[in-house]
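Kindly go through one protein, given below as sequence and tokens. The question is how this chain folds according to its tokens.

***
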Amino acid sequence: MPKSAIGQERRTNPFIWGAAIICAIVTLVMIIIGIIVIISYFIIHPKTPSISVSYANMDRLYYDQMGNLQVQITIVIKAKNDNAKTHARFYDIGLFVGFSGMEIAKLQNKPFDVEKNNSVEFNYLVNSRPIPLKKLQGDFVQSSFRKQVIEFDLTGKAKTKWRVWVIGSVKVLLNLDCNLQFFVPNGSATPYSESHYCSSKSS
């Protein structure tokens, strides 16, 4: 009676076993690192630095019969770092003061650092030359005089970076978009003006 033949068992190549073990070790290490990063994030709880308008005042407003506008505005920009473990750096700062869709001035600053749990303020004096306005813009000025409130826009961007333990350097783009309202003629900010609470948003 013929006997059934049993083939020899195939043995796995040692290199395949070695590669599988290495992959398993690497995967385990990555999981451990991920857990450490997540735990570190919740322990340190890093906060994104910000820029904001802490004060604004319209010092002078002049509009003549020829349709020329001249304005002087004081704006205080605050750079804030709420992180308790590390300083933050602010750079590539470019903010624009506008009126009725027209750019009046550009606010710039050199790169600077803000220490942990600290803030720094910068005073800007916007002093424009006489600006010829179009009819629609002139009508807007006259309407503002009647309402005794005039509006300006403060928009722009800045970049910030700071170090987070384990994660490393973190870079964020800050966007500022504020509507500044001032009483006419005294120039003080209205209670509804964003000069009291306007802050950047990160992206």
The mean pLDDT is 85.
